[in-house]
Amino acid sequence: TNTKWQELYKEGVVSQLDAENTDTSQGTNQANTEAFSANLRFLEQEVAFKRVTAPFAGIITVRNVNVGDLITANSTSFEMFHIQQTDPLRVYFRIPQEDAANITVGQTFNVQVGAQSAKTYPGKVISTSGAVSPDSRTMLVELQVENSKNEILPGSYATVRVPEVALGELVTLPDNTLIFRGKSVQVGVVDANGVVQLHDVKVGRDFGVQSEILSGVSESDKVIVNPSDSLVTGAVVRVSSPAPAAAKK
Fold first, then answer.
1. Are residues 154 and 195 in the same domain?
2. Using CA atoms, how far apart are residues 119 and 155, in angstroms rounded to an integer?
3. Are 161 and 178 in the same domain?
4. Residue 11 has pLDDT above 70, yes or no
5. How confident is the model at residue 126 (pLDDT cuts 50, 70, 90)?
6. Whole domain around residue 125: which residue ranges?
7. Which of 88, 91, 173, 243 could be cross-linked to 143 through a Cys-Cys bond (beta carbons 3.0 to 4.6 Å apart)?
8. Over the stretch 210-231, which tens digit does the pLDDT of each residue have?
């Protein structure tokens, strides 16, 4: 070995030239060994590419190759398979700007898949976009739903039930209380003296026969139903009491 030759050189048994040649030869052999090892690792990696392994467990939904097809190496634009994770599933939905501040990581909402009578699944908020989209004025929310029994198909449409408690105070009015005049929307509010005050309101979401009111009225206000087109501020009205229920015979 090189160590032995260096000891013999120090003892004067071999010449300096022989000792240097031995040292150089050992360095060359070491470099060749490392090069051969690197080449072996490269070949092992090339052979390993014959087996395609997914980075996560799931099901293959699209197969773009068949047995015997030629696959070009380093082709990043060609998709061999499309795989979808089944458990857990991620559910994305958008929340209006007015309620975005009430959504926090860790909250749990019910996720309903399919018809109105379909089963609901608990979904946990794992992240939000943290910003409101300038186009839709909504914030993107991501839920995680456990699907260990594979009852939910990936890609399905779902309905997320967000309770009013999570959204904070919500004021709604029947659509037949709204007065549309020009570009503004108003409602007739009656004070304690029976005098009408027209309030400009800001309308939010449309729930069909009701609309969300973002500003302009409060829960304690008395609002006129089916107001006349000629209704103006200062008009005096009489608040009628609900008719008593008919007695059962």
1. no
2. 17
3. no
4. yes
5. very high
6. 89-167
7. 91
8. 888 888 888 888 898 988 888 8
